[in-house]
């Protein structure tokens, strides 16, 4: 593989970030947009070239994709324990390169239209470049520490972009919330890394994932509370992944993150950064699978399945279209986690792993399209809320068609992209556990329902009285929509199982007709229900929600998780833990020190009268002391 | 080595010199006199150094060198003390040691 190419892929966005960031006040917006897009287009071309070389020319040896690593030692701790910096090329990192560069390029082009006239236009592009650089670094990382460094960098870029409208209080609160929640999760990740470093003496992915390596061979040698230490480390690492991928119960930041500009939501909070958690589990998949018979992997599966169901239920009741999409993202990420969790390793056993990566790929395309479409709608009506929309299909034909394509894709209607990947996930779940399969099918139905609820709500239904007639977005915004629509249709036909598999060998997949039929029926049922409820103005939905009563209220308040967390933070943590500790610090620690000082002052006030100010007195005291000492010493020496 | 003079005699002389200095230091009221008394104390110790060096270790020079050090330090100290005394005189129009009591705490 060509090392210069690989290094240029992240280096170009970094250079663009530095240039735009340092000269942000001197560069004209028109120039900065072109620089951003041109830089990223170059990176994208290099990524595609790398992918082509890897998958079709150089990557395969005896039918198995090889892993290429180029690295330099950065910090040496012991003989075997060192932190490296480098690039790692294997099927999933190449696949992620394509996802990141494609979506990022589309978002860059789209932002030139969406952000036009904004004061921080150049700053926005600088942040986007910083994010893209960090994401490339994360994808190409060769060891746990390198991935952690870039992991935090994407967290920072996400923080900066959510808080992009920094004059808005809610945006700042959302940015802080996202940063603190993910940071809390990353704390677990860091401890996991330390445990792994301590017990296996390596951070390197290849050594860790090697079935003959120290991590997998010796996991049973040390245990803690009934589980292997390595399993604990993997669970902690998954905690970091769950934070970034908004898995239950660390999901609360994702809906609020929608305060950021919509292109950012499409890039970071739908297609790339939030899949970092899935990518992390996939990166360590052999470890997850082989240590303690996949105990940690089962946790991944059930957390994923629960998050998928939980988020899909909440998504039905939300009225902010971006929040619906956010919960939809969470739900689909849950799908990917579940799929990884139920996967085996060799050959066709590894269908879950393949399906998860496949779904990551297709989901990136259609979810970015959904967000960009939603952004186009928001751009036209200046509101996020469903009640301010309706009947827009006449005004915005391109957005309408592309949004419909994306909605059909996520609903799993053949032959669009979502159908193929979702079908593979359901097959994998079916082979592992009927229960998870049932959840999967139910969530598929729910997904179709809530997605068409907002589709009909935006583009059909009763027309709202618009102040200005809405109009179609400019070409710079519709072009990415059209490209992504084509990708959403076509991405499903890629024979993914030949390229990206757990054992890197490739296998052939066949459509399981019965399971596919069940999934399609579930999806169509959701669409038809949404059609009945929301296509024409009627009170069916209202009566239905009333029938659910309290459950509906709970759901529309996202099961009160924000409130529970606030309660835990404020009432329990601040009042019962932090406040007493602060009191201890003020009263006892500070009190001791201040007391000593005050006592010194009091005592010295009392005894200062002993100073006469007469030099002779002092001299007399001094000489008298010397004489006494002399006598004492003479007495000692003479005895 | 001085012929006919023993070390005991010289040490007695320096001891007398020393205690004259101490007595003067404690009893004099004029700052200049106190300073002169301090010089007496210093000079007695300088003579001590020289004599002990000469009588006990005639082939070495440490005592001599040390006495030169003390003379240098004494000169510096005197210059400083005189400067302080001149300042006190300017402020208080007096070099009586009692007047300086106003400077306590």
Automatic annotation (TrEMBL), chain A:
<feature type="transmembrane region" description="Helical">
    <location>
        <begin position="295"/>
        <end position="317"/>
    </location>
</feature>
<dbReference type="Pfam" id="PF00361">
    <property type="entry name" value="Proton_antipo_M"/>
</dbReference>
<feature type="transmembrane region" description="Helical">
    <location>
        <begin position="6"/>
        <end position="23"/>
    </location>
</feature>
<keyword id="KW-0472">Membrane</keyword>
<keyword id="KW-1133">Transmembrane helix</keyword>
<feature type="transmembrane region" description="Helical">
    <location>
        <begin position="365"/>
        <end position="386"/>
    </location>
</feature>
<feature type="transmembrane region" description="Helical">
    <location>
        <begin position="122"/>
        <end position="141"/>
    </location>
</feature>
<dbReference type="GO" id="GO:0015990">
    <property type="term" value="P:electron transport coupled proton transport"/>
</dbReference>
<feature type="domain" description="NADH-Ubiquinone oxidoreductase (complex I) chain 5 N-terminal">
    <location>
        <begin position="74"/>
        <end position="125"/>
    </location>
</feature>
<feature type="transmembrane region" description="Helical">
    <location>
        <begin position="92"/>
        <end position="110"/>
    </location>
</feature>
<feature type="domain" description="NADH:quinone oxidoreductase/Mrp antiporter transmembrane">
    <location>
        <begin position="141"/>
        <end position="446"/>
    </location>
</feature>
<dbReference type="InterPro" id="IPR001516">
    <property type="entry name" value="Proton_antipo_N"/>
</dbReference>
<dbReference type="InterPro" id="IPR003945">
    <property type="entry name" value="NU5C-like"/>
</dbReference>
<feature type="transmembrane region" description="Helical">
    <location>
        <begin position="477"/>
        <end position="496"/>
    </location>
</feature>
<feature type="transmembrane region" description="Helical">
    <location>
        <begin position="516"/>
        <end position="534"/>
    </location>
</feature>
<dbReference type="GO" id="GO:0003954">
    <property type="term" value="F:NADH dehydrogenase activity"/>
</dbReference>
<feature type="transmembrane region" description="Helical">
    <location>
        <begin position="178"/>
        <end position="199"/>
    </location>
</feature>
<feature type="transmembrane region" description="Helical">
    <location>
        <begin position="398"/>
        <end position="420"/>
    </location>
</feature>
<dbReference type="InterPro" id="IPR018393">
    <property type="entry name" value="NADHpl_OxRdtase_5_subgr"/>
</dbReference>
<dbReference type="GO" id="GO:0012505">
    <property type="term" value="C:endomembrane system"/>
</dbReference>
<dbReference type="InterPro" id="IPR001750">
    <property type="entry name" value="ND/Mrp_TM"/>
</dbReference>
<dbReference type="GO" id="GO:0016020">
    <property type="term" value="C:membrane"/>
</dbReference>
TrEMBL record, chain B:
<keyword id="KW-1133">Transmembrane helix</keyword>
<keyword id="KW-0812">Transmembrane</keyword>
<feature type="transmembrane region" description="Helical">
    <location>
        <begin position="31"/>
        <end position="52"/>
    </location>
</feature>
<dbReference type="GO" id="GO:0048038">
    <property type="term" value="F:quinone binding"/>
</dbReference>
<comment type="subunit">
    <text>NDH-1 is composed of 14 different subunits. Subunits NuoA, H, J, K, L, M, N constitute the membrane sector of the complex.</text>
</comment>
<keyword id="KW-1278">Translocase</keyword>
<dbReference type="GO" id="GO:0042773">
    <property type="term" value="P:ATP synthesis coupled electron transport"/>
</dbReference>
<dbReference type="Pfam" id="PF00420">
    <property type="entry name" value="Oxidored_q2"/>
</dbReference>
<dbReference type="GO" id="GO:0050136">
    <property type="term" value="F:NADH dehydrogenase (quinone) (non-electrogenic) activity"/>
</dbReference>
<dbReference type="InterPro" id="IPR039428">
    <property type="entry name" value="NUOK/Mnh_C1-like"/>
</dbReference>
<comment type="function">
    <text>NDH-1 shuttles electrons from NADH, via FMN and iron-sulfur (Fe-S) centers, to quinones in the respiratory chain. The immediate electron acceptor for the enzyme in this species is believed to be a menaquinone. Couples the redox reaction to proton translocation (for every two electrons transferred, four hydrogen ions are translocated across the cytoplasmic membrane), and thus conserves the redox energy in a proton gradient.</text>
</comment>
<feature type="transmembrane region" description="Helical">
    <location>
        <begin position="64"/>
        <end position="89"/>
    </location>
</feature>
<feature type="transmembrane region" description="Helical">
    <location>
        <begin position="6"/>
        <end position="26"/>
    </location>
</feature>
<keyword id="KW-0813">Transport</keyword>
<dbReference type="GO" id="GO:0005886">
    <property type="term" value="C:plasma membrane"/>
</dbReference>
<dbReference type="GO" id="GO:0030964">
    <property type="term" value="C:NADH dehydrogenase complex"/>
</dbReference>
<keyword id="KW-0472">Membrane</keyword>
<comment type="similarity">
    <text>Belongs to the complex I subunit 4L family.</text>
</comment>
<keyword id="KW-0520">NAD</keyword>
<protein>
    <recommendedName>
        <fullName>NADH-quinone oxidoreductase subunit K</fullName>
        <ecNumber>7.1.1.-</ecNumber>
    </recommendedName>
</protein>
<keyword id="KW-1003">Cell membrane</keyword>
<dbReference type="InterPro" id="IPR001133">
    <property type="entry name" value="NADH_UbQ_OxRdtase_chain4L/K"/>
</dbReference>
């Amino acid at each position: 593989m060509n090392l210069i190419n690989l290094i240029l892929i992240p280096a170009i966005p970094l250079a663009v970030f530095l240039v735009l960031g340092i000269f942000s006040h001197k560069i004209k917006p028109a120039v900065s947009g072109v620089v951003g897009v041109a830089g990223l287009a170059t990176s994208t071309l290099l990524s595609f070239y790398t992918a082509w070389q890897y998958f079709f020319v150089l990557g395969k040896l005896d039918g198995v994709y090889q892993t290429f690593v180029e690295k330099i030692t950065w910090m040496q701790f012991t003989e075997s324990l060192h932190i490296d910096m480098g690039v790692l090329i294997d099927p999933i990192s190449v696949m992620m390169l394509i996802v990141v560069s494609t979506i990022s390029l589309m978002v860059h082009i789209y932002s030139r239209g969406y952000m036009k006239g904004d004061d921080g236009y150049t700053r926005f592009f600088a942040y986007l470049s910083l994010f893209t650089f960090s994401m490339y670094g994360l994808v190409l990382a060769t060891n746990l520490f390198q991935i952690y460094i870039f992991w935090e960098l994407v967290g920072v870029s996400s923080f900066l972009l959510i808080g992009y409208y920094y004059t808005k209080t809610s945006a700042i609160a959302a940015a802080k919330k996202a940063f603190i929640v993910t940071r809390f999760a990353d704390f677990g990740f860091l401890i996991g890394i330390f445990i792994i470093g301590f017990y296996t003496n390596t951070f390197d992915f290849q050594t860790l994932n090697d079935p003959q390596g120290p991590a997998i061979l010796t996991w049973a040698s040390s245990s803690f509370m009934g589980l292997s230490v390595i399993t604990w480390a993997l669970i902690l690492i998954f905690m970091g992944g769950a934070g970034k991928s908004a898995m239950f119960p660390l999901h609360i930041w994702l809906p609020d993150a929608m305060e950021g500009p919509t292109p950012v939501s499409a890039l970071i909070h739908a297609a790339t950064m939030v899949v970092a958690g899935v990518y992390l589990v996939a990166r360590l998949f052999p470890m997850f699978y082989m240590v303690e018979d996949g105990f940690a992997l089962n946790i991944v599966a059930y957390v994923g399945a629960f998050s998928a169901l939980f988020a899909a239920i909440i998504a039905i009741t939300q009225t902010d279209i971006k929040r619906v999409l956010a919960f939809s993202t969470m739900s689909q990420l849950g799908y990917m986690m579940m799929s990884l969790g139920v996967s085996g390793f060799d050959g066709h056993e590894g269908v879950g792993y393949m399906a998860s990566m496949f779904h990551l790929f297709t989901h990136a395309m259609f979810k970015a399209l959904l967000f960009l479409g939603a952004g186009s709608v928001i751009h036209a009506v200046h509101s996020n809320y469903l009640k301010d929309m309706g009947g827009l299909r006449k005004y915005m034909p391109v957005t309408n068609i592309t949004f419909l394509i994306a909605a059909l894709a996520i609903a799993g209607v053949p032959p669009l992209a979502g159908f193929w990947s979702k079908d593979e996930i359901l097959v994998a779940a079916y082979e592992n556990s009927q229960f998870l399969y049932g959840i999967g099918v139910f969530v598929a139905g729910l997904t179709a329902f809530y997605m068409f609820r907002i589709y009909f709500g935006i583009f059909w239904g009763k027309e709202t009285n618009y102040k200005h007639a809405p109009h179609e977005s400019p070409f710079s915004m519709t072009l990415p929509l059209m490209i992504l629509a084509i990708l959403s249709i076509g991405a499903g036909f890629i024979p993914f199982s030949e390229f990206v598999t757990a054992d890197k060998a490739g296998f052939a997949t066949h459509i399981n007709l019965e399971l596919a039929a069940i999934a399609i029926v579930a999806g169509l049922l959701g669409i038809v229900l949404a059609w009945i409820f929301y296509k024409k103005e009627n009170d069916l939905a209202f009566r239905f929600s009333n029938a659910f009563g309290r459950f509906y209220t709970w759901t529309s308040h996202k099961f009160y998780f924000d409130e529970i967390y606030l309660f835990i933070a404020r009432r329990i943590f601040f009042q019962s833990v932090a406040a007493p500790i602060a009191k201890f610090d003020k009263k006892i620690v500070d009190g001791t020190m201040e007391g000593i000082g005050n006592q010194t002052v009091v005592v010295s006030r009392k005894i200062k009268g002993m100073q006469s100010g007469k030099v002779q007195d002092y001299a007399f005291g001094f000489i008298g002391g010397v004489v006494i000492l002399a006598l004492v010493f003479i007495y000692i020496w003479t005895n | 080595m001085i012929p006919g003079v023993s070390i005991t005699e010289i040490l007695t002389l320096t001891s007398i010199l020393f205690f004259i200095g101490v007595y003067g230091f404690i009893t004099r009221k004029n700052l200049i006199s106190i300073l002169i008394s301090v010089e007496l104390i210093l000079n007695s110790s300088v003579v001590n150094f020289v004599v002990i060096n000469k009588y006990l270790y005639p082939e070495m020079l440490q005592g001599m060198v040390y006495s030169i050090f003390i003379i240098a330090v004494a000169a510096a100290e005197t210059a400083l003390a005189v400067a302080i005394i001149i300042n006190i005189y300017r402020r208080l129009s007096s070099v009586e040691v009692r007047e300086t009591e106003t400077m306590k705490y």
